[in-house]
Write the structure tokens for this entry.
Amino acid sequence: MAQKLEDFFSRTERYRFLTSANLNPFAVCVLIIGLHIFGMVSGHLERVENIFLDTFFRQRPPLGAHPDLVIIEIDKESLQAVGPWPWPWRYHEQMIRILKSWQARGIVFDFAFPKLEEAEQDQNLEAVFQNEDRVYLPVSLEVKTGKKIYVHDLPVVLEPEGERKSWIHSIPELEKNARAVGHTHLRSDPDGVLRKIEPYLSENGETYPYLALPAAFDYLGQELPGRGSLALPLDRKGGLRVHWLGKWPETFERYSYADLVRSAQVFQSGKEPVISPERIKGKICLIGITAPGLAVFKSSPLESPYPTVG
């Protein structure tokens, strides 16, 4: 078949090639967008981000904690000196009196004071709280254990395990006189590493700030903002990333509970104590358990285990 002249000048093949060439980048863009959406929904991108974030913390030199932060450890030595946990409340009453006389700016307990049988202990500690406006107490969120009864040796479940959570408080006589109450709930990421805290936590109609926040804002002389007006860099889920300052042994100014009590006794007798009052004056003192086998530990990007008081 003879070709016509216009066949040599037709752009049909060229248009077809250009159309095909334009569709290929479009398909690639759609594929890339789809992969990004899948990564965000599935959490794979967040895992990659966490890997780089953890690497940054490990490579960065330790920064050290604020000089006005002190941790008073209930460590192995303290348990050997005082006795097994839990201790009688008179020891904590004595510690509050020591820190008050040494002009501590804040006293933050990392453990609660539930109801005990010894009424005298309750009254003594309550009397200290009534005259003290710098003590902060925690509340913890725990899963209720299952309740069941046995009928003819067969279990009848009254309340399934793990369906409800409840707040664990100190006795009301103490909480009402505390400077502030805050939660200590720490939720690790799926890989078991703690990277975020929840500035506010609500459950069963109760809402509490994270325990460190009211103490920090009081130190700054500022009022603690409400949940919706907290000017902190939160993620899309409302979490606040922990700015890890360094490894546990290298970061904080720490004193043993037993050493502090001994130093107070030595100081009262007119001798030179191991821990001087000047090391406590004007500082926020966090009292928490760090003894192995008793403390609660988490994994941080820098090390594992890491005590929760840190």
Notes: The longest helix spans residues 12-42.
